Inverse folding.
């Protein structure tokens, strides 16, 4: 079988495992009373979601891990690279897990401090970036789309790649605010990068990202509105880091702002809101940030906002395809 067929099989395996693992996890979380705490400053309509099982990222990324690990045994994927990409998602997911556990175990809607999370993220991101530069045979090179040239950043590649990884992990985390939003958007963008990986001949990234995209699709069975489970920071941090690790491994980081413009918009909306609030002495630029809440408070239903974001993510990926 060719790579495309096997990548498709990996996607299906990831989806099936995510459906199964999440089905198993939901009653366990309910029994342990690991329910979501809703931020007081969030939309009032979300208060009804309090108590919904969270930390679904354990099942989601667990499915991704199992499906991805199967790839080297029936395809030309590099097991070491696969393990490193999986580890990147797992380590960032661990940060999210600790954060989630503090929230649900101590019944507090805050977890780790921002500084604690950032320090851990930077350490893990630097370790991953050093591996990519030193052990993948590509050094500090970076592919530039449109121009179709390769730049050699040398030692500067490590802080560059680490920044991309940390920024994306937090951007994906911000996107996890509505039922099915983060899992749907990330699944779409991961699928796009599967196609990019196949085109560029990077089999390891193709299989890993296919496993991740499939896991997102399977998780949606339980996470779509009305969600029976949330992924929590455990899932969003793992997805953000995992997706980015697969992209970095094939040196296509510069495609992220275009294909993943949804994530850029979410981050920018928060930055704009904070700066405008401080500049005007308490006025808001958006009804609420991140920007998905702006549309929700503007009268759109949660499902309408999610479908709009899915569609926009797909459009961004389609337009990005024309520059590669």
């Amino acid at each position: 079988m060719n790579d495309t067929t096997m990548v498709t099989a990996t996607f299906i395996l990831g989806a099936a495992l995510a459906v199964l693992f999440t089905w198993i996890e939901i009653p366990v979380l309910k029994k342990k009373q690991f329910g979501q705490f809703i931020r007081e400053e969030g939309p009032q309509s979300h208060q009804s979601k309090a108590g919904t099982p969270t930390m679904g990222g354990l099942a989601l990324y667990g499915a991704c891990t199992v499906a991805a690990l199967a790839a080297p045994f029936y395809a030309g994927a590099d097991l070491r690279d696969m393990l490193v990409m999986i580890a990147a998602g797992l380590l960032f997911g661990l940060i999210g897990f600790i954060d989630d556990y503090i929230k649900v175990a101590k019944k507090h809607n805050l977890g780790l401090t921002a500084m604690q999370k950032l320090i851990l993220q930077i350490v893990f991101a630097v370790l991953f970036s050093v591996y990519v530069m030193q052990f993948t045979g590509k050094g500090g090179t970076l592919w530039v789309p449109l121009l179709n040239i390769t730049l050699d950043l040398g030692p500067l590649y490590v802080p560059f790649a680490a920044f991309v990884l940390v920024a994306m992990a937090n951007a994906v985390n911000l996107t996890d605010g509505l039922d099915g939003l983060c899992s749907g958007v990330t699944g779409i963008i991961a699928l796009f990068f599967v196609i990019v990986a196949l085109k560029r001949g990077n089999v390891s990234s193709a299989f890993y990202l296919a496993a991740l995209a499939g896991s997102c699709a399977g998780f949606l069975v339980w996470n779509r509105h009305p969600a029976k489970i949330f992924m929590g920071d455990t899932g969003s941090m793992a997805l953000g880091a995992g997706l980015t690790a697969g992209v970095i491994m094939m040196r296509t980081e510069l495609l992220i702002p275009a294909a993943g413009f949804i994530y850029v918009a979410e981050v920018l909306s928060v930055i704009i809101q904070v700066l405008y609030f401080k500049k005007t002495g308490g006025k808001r630029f958006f009804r609420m940030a991140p920007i998905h809440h702006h549309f929700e408070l503007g009268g759109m239903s949660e499902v309408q906002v999610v479908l709009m974001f899915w569609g926009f993510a797909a459009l961004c990926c389609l337009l990005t395809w024309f520059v590669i």
Q: What stands out?
A: Residues 3-252 form one domain.
